[in-house]
Amino acid sequence: MSLIIISCDNILDLDPQDTLTEDVFYQTAEDAVIAVNAAYDPFQNLFYYGFAYPILGNLAGGDAIKGGFGSGDQAAMLQFQDFTSDASNGRLNDYWKAIWPGVLRANVVLTKVPDIDMDEALKNRVLGEAKFIRALNYYNLTMTWGGLPIYDFVPTATTESLPRSSRADVLKFIEEDLLDAINLLPNASDYAPADVGRASKGSAQGLLARLYANSGRWGEASKIVDDIMASPASYALVPDYANNFNGEGDNNIETLFEIQYNTGSSPDQWSDNGQWNGNQIADTWGPIGTAEDAIFGWGFSAPSEDLVNSYEAGDLRLPATILQPGDEFLGDIFDPENSGHFANTGSMYGNVKYINPGASGAGSLDSPVNFKIIRFAEMLLIKAEALNEGANDQQNAIMYLDMVRERAGLAGIQTTLGYLPGQSELRDLIYKEMRVELALEATSYFNFVSRDLGSQMYGARGFKVGQDELFPIPQGALDINGWNPNPGY
Fold this sequence. Notes:
Elements: H1 22-25, H2 29-40, H3 52-60, E1 64-67, H4 78-82, H5 90-112, H6 120-145, H7 167-184, H8 201-214, H9 218-229, E2 255-259, H10 281-284, E3 300-303, H11 305-308, H12 317-321, E4 322-323, E5 328-329, E6 332-333, H13 336-339, H14 341-345, E7 350-351, E8 371-375, H15 376-390, H16 394-407, H17 413-417, H18 423-437, H19 444-450, H20 454-458, H21 475-481
Helix pairs in contact: 2-5, 2-6, 5-6, 6-7, 7-8, 8-9, 8-15, 9-15, 15-16, 15-18, 16-18
């Protein structure tokens, strides 16, 4: 799937800056496809899924510590792990600016494409893709910052700032977009090889299942997961968990949606982060080593001791997620004390997920490994949780939980415990499974906070109820738009 670049630096500069006028450009089916391709592009940005957003979730959720080359390296990110962020945090501001262009570009598609004379099936697909893209961007926005203005149109230079809508209204807007996308999009199995990686019906269903689960709408969450399991796309767990994250399993049968990356096509990676097409995580998260080592990264989002201790003995996901001292990886031996990794990052552990330098080699910020956004494993865990919470049906709930555990080389819950757990005990077991299954994928923190677990899980690190459910909106956005800050900021 090829992408084009349209410049749009921030939400305060909302007029799309194309080289062709709108009247000339939006005429053909090819124009429609090019426009929706451009809407995918911001996901790749270093300050979105390329680096900033995953680290925000990993650090706040306690799966990782900041890492990097000492405490002063990207010091603003320290605020994520101890809940001291404020409106001047530069990394939050970068993320804020990186996410809004995707909303704008999706709105351009939804405004212009309906009037193009083109094949109706292709038109519906393009509109469905744009609905999903807008929904995913707004989902990330509201999980991070709560209530926000709802842009369902293309603003111009003279458009006045909109007030912040309530979070409930934003979630309703997202739900409506996803329901539309489900009706408009094809199944993943219906895409031609050249279009693999585009949003599909399963992508929209998966995000909607996550939204319903995070809202405690268990019956609806359960039904959506049933639809996913019955999909012609034949979603399933891949036998090898590690296959999801090493490049070999890009766009596999476990994927409902992932960010597409390729290597060797990016411009100067060091001067224009908005145009990178390669995945930067291999370098930014890779363990620190010497220039001669096969392992050579910047050490950010370094796995925490607490995460390591969350795994059961024999869990195959641990070595597929975390490097421990003495592990062999990429032809090298991980030696954090002698490589400088521990001295710089403060962690004795390194990342495995997504750490594959690819064709361009270490230091290029240009890995081809895709970043998983929604996996079938999460859907099975949502199904288990929905049955436990909504139907008080522990017997059937553990069936789905055990599917995930057995792939990880673990015995089923009832075999492990020797009895069928009750609702409360099973709830905690599901949460534990969610954490290790989705470790370092930036998802669990927002899921757990949505379930009002912030104080229970993160209170020891400073989480404050009534404040830290949300992050501070950047000061510049508050000043220009005249918004009130989030509570506590």
